[in-house]
């Protein structure tokens, strides 16, 4: 299991911003020479976990329709940190946000949770209206 540690969650008013971080320094390059995909997922109470944003080792990015234009995913490969910049937050963005990593494959749909093997413990984001 690759340890992933999220941080940066908190409570913010609607319209505000937060930046989430995911430390994946526990990931070492495996037999697939650095091929990976990483994603941010969120889960609100009573709802299924859903993909928010994803990025792969070629820099390809994907976003859920609900966050396009407001959220931005990025990867610092020097410090092994995945970021999610969240702007113009809405009440419906509230939830537990999880970082995920798949270190041996890249698939077309970066937002499909079933394709990710490694998960963090999550960081809570609460947006007050």
Annotation field: number of helices: 0
Range of strand content: 35-45%
Average of the residue pLDDT scores: 91
- Tell me, briefly, the overall form: globular
Q: What is the C-alpha radius of gyration, as a whole number of Å?
A: 14 Å
- What is the share of helical residues? under 10%
Distance from N terminus to C terminus (CA atoms, Å) equals: 38 Å
How is the main sheet built? 7 strands, mixed
The succession of helices and strands, N to C, reads EEEEEEEEEEE
Spans of at least 5 consecutive residues whose pLDDT stays below 50 are none
Structural class: mainly beta
Number of strands: 11
In short:
The chain starts with a strand and ends with a strand. It is mostly beta strands and 129 residues long. It has strands spanning 5-7, 10-13, 18-23, 37-43, 50-56, 61-63, 71-76, 81-86, 95-102, 118-119, 123-128.
How would you describe the overall organization of this protein?
The protein has 129 residues and is mainly β. The protein has no helices and eleven strands. The strands form two sheets. Strands 2, 4, 5, 6, 9, 10 and 11 form a seven-stranded mixed sheet that branches. It has a four-stranded antiparallel sheet with strand order 1-3-8-7, with no helix packed on it. Strand 4 (37-43) and strand 5 (50-56) form a beta hairpin. It is globular, with a radius of gyration of 14 Å.
């Amino acid at each position: 299991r690759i340890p992933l540690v999220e941080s940066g969650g908190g409570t913010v008013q609607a319209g505000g911003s937060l930046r989430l971080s995911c430390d994946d320094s526990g990931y070492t390059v495996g037999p697939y020479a650095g091929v990976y995909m990483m994603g941010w997922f969120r889960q609100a109470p009573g709802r299924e976990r859903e993909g928010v944003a994803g990025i792969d080792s070629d820099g390809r990015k994907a976003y859920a329709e609900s966050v396009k234009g407001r959220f931005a995913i990025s990867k610092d490969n020097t410090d092994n940190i995945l970021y999610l910049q969240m702007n113009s937050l809405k009440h419906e963005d509230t939830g537990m946000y999880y970082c995920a990593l798949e270190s041996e494959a890249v698939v077309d749909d970066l937002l499909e949770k079933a394709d990710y093997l490694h998960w963090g413990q999550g960081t809570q984001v609460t947006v007050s209206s």
